[in-house]
Amino acid sequence: MNKKEGYVYFLFEHKSYPSKGVAFQLLNYIVRIWEQKIKKEFDLKIPVVIPLVLYHGKDKWKIKTSLGEMIRGYDELPEDVRRFVPNYQYLLYDLSTFSDEEIKGEARLRILLSVFRDIFKSNSNEFLKVVFNATLALDELEDQEMGIEYFSRR
């Protein structure tokens, strides 16, 4: 980062319902990561932590993605006061907006994300389609693992 060696932590949180307190919950996780890092390595240089929420609920996510939204009157605070108040944003991935083609990655990840996305479908035929697609992906995974196993024995 900035032409220096470094690392980034990604904090993944999964939600199946909109949660107004998620920005505060993520902040608690971030602080815990930093505390652990300081305790274990005795280093006061803490890592960058990028919080990410995977959402797959029935309702549309209407919650703002910043901690400042939780702080009463944050937007009206003068800039010289606001700079003393912690604020950050988290990334939100609403899986319900992703098509099958947009869900990428290896088979296990595609299965997991597809099931997360479709678990609340009320139409049983739609959910059966999800199960069928998961079966196809598992078959692909088994074929890949068999291929790897074949080459690793030689």
Characterization of this structure:
With 154 residues, this protein is an alpha/beta fold. It has two domains: 7-97; 99-154. Helices cover 43% and strands 13% of the residues. It contains four helices and three strands; from the N terminus they run E-H-E-H-E-H-H. The chain has helices at 22-41, 79-82, 107-118, 124-153, and strands at residues 8-15, 48-55, 91-94. Strand 2 (48-55), helix 2 (79-82) and strand 3 form a beta-alpha-beta unit. Helix 3 packs antiparallel against helix 4. The longest helix is centred in the last third of the chain and has 30 residues, at 124-153. The protein starts with 7 loop residues before the first strand and ends with a helix.
What features would you highlight for this structure?
alpha/beta, single chain, about 150 residues, disordered C terminus
Low-confidence stretches: 147-154
Specify the biggest β-sheet. Answer: 3 strands, parallel
Share of residues in strands: 5-15%
Determine the N-to-C terminus distance: 41 Å
Shape: globular
What structural class do you assign from the helix and strand content?
Answer: alpha/beta
- Total helices: the number is 4
Tell me the number of strands. Answer: 3
Number of domains: 2
